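Support reply, case 0932

Customer input (verbatim):
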Amino acid sequence: MDFSLAPITERVRAAAADQTPLRIRGGGTKDFHGLALHGEVLDTRVLRGIVSYEPSELVVTVRSGTTLAELEAALAEQGQCLPFEPPHFAKTPADAATVGGMVAAGLSGPARASVGAVRDYLLGVTLLNGKAELLTFGGQVMKNVAGYDVARLMAGAWGTLGLLTEVSLKVLPVAPGEATLRFEGINQADALRKLHAWGGQPLPLNASCWVQDEGAGTLYVRLRGAVAAVEAACKTMGGTRMDNATVAADWTACREQTLPWFTDRATRPDHALWRLSVPATAPVLALPGGVQPLVEWHGALRWVQAPESAGDALREAARAVGGSASLFVAAEANKSGASGAFDLQSKALEQIHARLKHSFDPAGIFNPGRMARAW
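Our regenerated output:
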């Protein structure tokens, strides 16, 4: 019997009976995102520990309240990793992102465009639904789904469908070869052209970041893979090769949004951080005020700092190239309340989300108002 889960189960059962809203929370490092934070806090951090880890099988099962740092450390001891580089977004040394929060948020780091997202590595989950029923979906191997792949629905659901208790993840060995190339004095259009050209070649591209600082643009490209492939790519791609030990901190800062480009927003409290998801082949976007984005994922992810009043123009610019824009961090957002926003422009998509929510959480007790005001 899992004694740490028993009181949580009883609390969910009582909340469903009384229709008391519950706010599922692990480390709380992503409280800034979403429409609102409502309900009594239901802390998942008592559900902690690695249940099983088979390095030879590249599979780990971990309880949802386990800190992400603890899991990453255990994997590193075996020369393995979470290749999608989930962000922690810890603001203070006391903050600690959890594995459950990683899955619920569904956010990935710089390598996302090359290796896949959180959901692509999610093999199975165990969760409590809104009826306090403990359900298991998926398993510990890739080909284990007959019918609906329910486990992956939990990635990016922000706790609105259920309380994750355990997750099974595929992990990968750390790449033996790595290098970062820097291309200075390059504008956004030329950087995108280079990335598009490289994308059509058999190169070990792993991550990229283009940023403009004081009027000068710089493109950073990270290569990962076999040592021979990385070395060959360095010879053909050009640029300046950077020291791996030095640049590792910069890629972490990119993942955690602590690069100077991100932190500069503090000097403009009326500006929000917008996330534009577009096709990687999309050209330079016509953004309001001629602002310059920070470009990741080989062109597919563009971060923009602009007032919330620019929202309609940003959404239109993204839609014009087949993408979408959402408010990631609102102006003056803080940890006491979510203030981002999800971009559910399609009415059909909203209805699907609402039906899923009702199926898993009929009483609407889990994280109400986090993704949609109606539920």
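We compared this against your earlier run and they match. Two observations from our side: The chain has a mean pLDDT of 92. The two ends are 33 Å apart (CA to CA). Please reopen the case if you see a mismatch on your end.
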